[in-house]
Amino acid sequence: MDDLISANLWSRPTRTAISVFAVAMGVILMLVINGIATGTLDDAAKRTVSVGADFILQPSDAGMVYAFGTPSMPIKIADKIREIKGVGAVAPILSHPNLAEFSVTFGVDLNSYNQLPGALQIVKGTLSLTGNEVIVDELYARTHHVKPGMPVTIDNREFTISGICREGSAVRKFVPLTTYQTMMGTPDKVSMMFIKAAPGADLPSLEAELRKVFTGWHLITANDVQQLLDGTKIPMLKQFTSAVILVSMLISFMVILLAMYTTIFERTREIGILKSLGASRAFVVVMVLRESIIICILGVLLGTGISEVIRKVATTAVPTLKIEMQLSQIAFCCLLGIIAGLLGATYPAYKAAKMDPVKALSYE
Predict the structure, then answer these.
(1) What gap in Å lies between CA 148 and CA 140, rounded to an integer?
(2) Secondary structure of the chain: what % helix, strand, coil (to 5)?
(3) Which residue, 45, 58, 119, 156, shows the most beta carbons closer than 10 Å to its own?
């Protein structure tokens, strides 16, 4: 049987190569697109946890990816939060995304922000944030080849770098809150509040009180990566990833179905000879399925390799882009690719097994 399978694969190299590449494309779609979504979320969550806040308070329609949406939270809420027993520090934040760089800019009040454990740690320049000054992190400085005193453009406005903070801060760029509010046309509005409990405060009690006072608002526990991700409310994220998986599986399914179906008709006389020599239906089915498995395995291996190349090239070209490919994700995507290929080969295998050997031998 192995000789028959290998001979068929080698006798039709173009079709085999196209089938392998099609399966690989499905795996690439799943790994790269899901890797971008997972990597971006995990990176944002880890850097948010590094701020050291215990809670994040946002408008009810907000999610963990706080860069999207129009700022709608009155900044005066910060004073109301400070009045709650057990609150140690509150930092209002105005956030805005830069999709071209896969980054987010924070408008912050430096005094309140640096009351948090994850205060900005300057490695070059000075800790100053007024007027048109901006503080960037080390990765941004390396990527853009900038240093303190140099100008940078943020949202079509020129800023001067006052300092460079350590890599791993919440975002890559920090600008004065009042300046950013004026730029965004949202005076006295912010995107969220970072809240830090006072030393010795009971976190469950404080959380309950915050939820009671701010009923209807979105409160996220921000001191643990998994809890932060669990609190994520990103519209259509699950539907999007499910659609990517479905499309990827359909690609593998359709290509294997067409390739195997065509192969069955081209090998009608061969199948007739096998059945006349005593080959059972099960033998024919297994032969077709094993051929499709080989194609699928080659496809998932090729897809995994290309995905890793794409990851390295993309993250080198855009260092702020995070693509996460864990071993469990790779195994899951490869398994789906093989399953889709097997499903695609099931009907052709059934057709081959049902062939009448007399008619098959007379087939021209």
Answers:
(1) 12
(2) 55, 15, 30
(3) 58
pLDDT in tens, 274-308: 666 666 767 777 777 787 888 888 888 999 999 99
| Residue ranges of E strands in the chain | 55-58, 73-74, 87-98, 103-108, 122-125, 133-137, 151-154, 157-165, 173-176, 189-190, 192-197, 218-221
CB 184 within 8 A of CB 94: yes
User: Taking the domains of the chain in order of start, what are their residue ranges?
Assistant: 2-41+237-361, 52-221
Question: Which residues lie across from 55 on neighbouring strands?
Answer: 195, 221
Query: Among residues 275, 143, 312, 16, which one has the least CA distance to residue 24?
Result: 16
Alpha-carbon distance values, 137 to 57, 151, 270, 281, 308 (Å) = 25, 15, 67, 66, 27
CA terminus-to-terminus distance, the chain: 24
Residue 134 contacts residue 177 (beta carbons within 8 Å): no
Rounded to whole angstroms, the Cα distance separating 290 from 8 reads 12
Burial of 312 (0-12, 13-18, 19+ CB in 10 A): exposed
Q: pLDDT of 103-148, one tens digit each?
A: 789 999 999 999 999 899 999 999 999 999 999 999 899 988 999 9
What is the spatial distance between Cα 84 and Cα 197, in angstroms, rounded to a whole number?
10
Alpha-carbon span 267 to 47, nearest angstrom: 58
Cα separation, 121 vs 67, whole angstroms: 23
133 near 162, Cβ under 8 Å? yes
Tell me which residue has tokens 């995994």. Answer: 304
Packed helices 281-317 and 237-266: angle between N→C axes, nearest 10 degrees: 140
* Contacts for 225-233: CB closer than 8 Å, 24+ residues apart: 225/42, 225/45, 225/46, 225/49, 228/45, 228/48, 228/49, 228/64, 229/41, 229/42, 229/45, 229/64, 231/64, 232/41, 232/63, 232/64, 232/65, 233/62, 233/63, 233/64
